[in-house]
Every structure is written in structure tokens, then in C-alpha cells.
Amino acid sequence: MQLISTMQIGKNGIDENFIETLKNHFKNHKNVKVAVLKSATREKIKIKEMAEELVSKLGDNYNYRIVGFTIFLKKWTKKMR
Questions:
Q1: Does domain 4-75 have CATH number 3.20.20.370?
Q2: How far apart are CA 28 and CA 80, in angstroms?
Q3: pLDDT at residue 1 in the model
Q4: What pTM value is reported for the model?
Q5: What is the enclosing helix (H) or strand (E) of 5?
């Protein structure tokens, strides 16, 4: 089992297909690194909003950390909230 996987958010942003692909990544990985491309946004506030949206759509046992233009998502075995 690999610990980390990488995905990218581009100009299409976060859609249902992206969320389904992300859920599939979490079946085999504990952490997923999501790179926010220049075509999506370069505003820190927008990246934080994207991270909040991803965590809300994934569920309660996920959290995130933002470093630069990258969102690191982590899946916990126990619920966070």
C-alpha cells in the first residue's frame, strides 16, 4: 500500500468526476496530494475554499493542510468531528 498519491485541479475545477476519482485514490492510499494548477487559481483564499469543499464532499474522517499551491488530504480511520 502506497502512502501518497498525486492529483491535479485544473481549469475545470472540482466536479463530480474529480470527487469520484479522489475517492478511488483513497481506497489504496492514506494521503493524497492535490496540486492546484495555474489555470485553476493562484489565490490563497480560493485554494482554501477548494480544500474545504473537498473535505466536505469526502466526509467526516478527512482533513487537509495547504502548503503553497498544494492541498494535502489525509484520511483518518476514526472520525475527526
A1: no
A2: 20
A3: 54
A4: 0.89
A5: strand 4-9
